[in-house]
Amino acid sequence: MKSETSWKNNNRVRKLKLYVNGELKGILNLEDSRTDQVFKIGTLGHNSNGKDLVLRFEIAAIYKGDKYNDTAITEIYFDGIDVH
Hints:
- The protein is built from one helix and three strands.
- By secondary structure, the protein is mainly β.
- It has one domain (4-63).
- A three-stranded antiparallel β-sheet has the order 2-1-3, with no helix packed on it.
């Protein structure tokens, strides 16, 4: 986990768009908090051709940092059935 100072100095994600196979599935609204945040997005399903799903996350809005104008996502965890 980042230090408190580093966390405050850098931008933080406010809204995160989730795309599955290029299709927008939802917008995740994050709190300006250093704690883990959990979102239930339901079952994403599978591709009929047997290929893996392609997930893409797009930063749509930020909480402005005190010092730097950069934004990074440290970690994303997945939990549930067929999570690899």
